[in-house]
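for the recovery benchmark. tokens below, seq after
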């Protein structure tokens, strides 16, 4: 299979620093997601890497719709139907060519590469 044309990253809004451990956990997930994005950019230089930041108010509704659609296709109707209330459980998420690779965690590079069908 050829290199993927589109890889999407759904990035959660970070917790407030006042939340202590949750803030540190969010920061660690964000760091891992950024590292993953960098690695995939190197492996697939021609791919479009799309970052859906849930903190970005102007794109929030569109990001929710896209994530809900991917969750539905993955058989997660309950999360999809209550997407705004499910974000804590389904973010971060990564999709390759419109199909979820992982949600609720940062996948490792090998998971994403395997989903592309590339060796």
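predicted aa per position
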């Amino acid at each position: 299979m050829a290199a993927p044309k589109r890889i999407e990253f759904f990035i959660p809004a970070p917790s407030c620093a006042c939340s202590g451990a949750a803030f540190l956990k969010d920061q660690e997930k964000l760091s891992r997601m950024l590292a993953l994005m960098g690695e995939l950019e190197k492996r697939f230089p021609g791919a479009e890497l799309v970052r859906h930041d849930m903190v970005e108010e102007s794109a929030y509704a569109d990001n929710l719709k896209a994530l809900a659609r991917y969750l539905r296709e993955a058989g997660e109707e309950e999360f999809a139907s209550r997407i705004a209330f499910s974000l804590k459980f389904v973010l971060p998420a990564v999709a390759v060519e419109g199909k979820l690779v992982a949600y609720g965690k940062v996948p490792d590079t090998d998971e994403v590469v395997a989903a592309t069908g590339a060796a």
